[in-house]
Design brief:
Order of helices and strands: EHHHEEHEEHEHHEH
Radius of gyration: 18 Å
Helix content: 40-55%
Number of strands: 7
Number of helices: 8
Shape: globular
Structural class: alpha/beta
Oligomer: single chain
Strand content: 5-15%
Distance between the termini: 20 Å
Length: about 250
């Protein structure tokens, strides 16, 4: 299991077999101001990621690190190094390193402070590698299932002049990271083209939403979140027979 950004937060629950945990948090606790609050925008802590690893009572499902460690699955969280602008990988981390890796992988540029990790300050893994099928190949896997959050027709628009200036200003001390952020749309679109080719050739199995996902990054409408979750479950079940055929070849 290789996770990027929110995909790492979901992926780690998959490894610990806590299916539905992320949905429970984002549906039932979305409006807890200790979790997500626009009042912390100037502190760059709109989303309090520490909240995800704390105990919040009976209705809360704590992360089961014992089950995570016992799992036969390996887990890699993908982040982006501020110093190099390149991928920083955290494979099978535990304890504080696991928490740091997940926070780094899912901390969005401009909205979050850099996270200190064993590999230096890091932010969102999507900057350097949005869809890390290449990392799965590097790790020696020949059966790769890609799970995307965008439909197959989605492409990113080139960074605008304003976005470029913002990257250079906010990350002036990390020019390599700024360039990686600016070039992200180009890299992402190339990855999508390659994934589509490999999927058509039967070399990977690609799972993607069947129609565009229209939801905000920090969505406040819980009904929309629940509806999207239920849609994802339904479409995922529809993909299962094809995925099993691919894996059993």
């Amino acid at each position: 299991m290789i996770g990027v950004s929110a995909g790492s937060l979901n992926g780690v629950n998959f490894v610990s077999k806590q299916y539905g945990r992320a949905a429970n948090i984002n549906i039932n606790h979305r409006h807890d101001r200790h979790y997500i609050s626009m009042t912390r925008v100037f502190k760059k802590e709109i989303i309090n990621l520490d909240y995800l690893f704390e105990d919040h009572g009976y209705s809360w499902q704590n992360f089961n690190e014992t089950a995570y460690k016992r799992s036969a699955s390996h887990f890699t969280a993908v982040a982006t190094s501020l110093q190099s602008g390149k991928v920083a990988l955290f494979t099978d981390p535990t304890g504080d390193e696991l928490t740091q890796a997940l926070k780094a992988s899912s901390s969005m540029p401009f909205l979050s402070n850099p996270q200190e990790t064993s590999q230096g300050p890091c932010l969102d893994g999507g900057i350097a590698d949005s869809i890390p099928y290449d990392i799965a190949r590097q790790q020696g896997y020949d059966k790769i299932v890609v799970v995307r959050t965008r439909d197959v027709k989605y492409r990113k628009k080139p960074s605008s002049r304003a976005v470029k200036e913002l990257y250079h200003r906010v990350y002036k001390d990390y020019p390599a990271f700024a360039e990686a952020g600016i070039n992200r749309p180009l890299v992402y679109n190339k990855q999508v083209a390659e994934i589509n080719r490999l999927a058509n050739e039967g070399k990977i199995y690609d799972i993607a939403p069947k129609k565009p996902v229209k939801i905000k990054r920090v969505e406040g409408n819980v009904k929309k979140i629940r509806k999207l979750y239920e849609r994802g479950k339904k479409e995922g079940e529809e993909y299962l027979p094809g995925m099993l055929r691919y894996l059993e070849k």
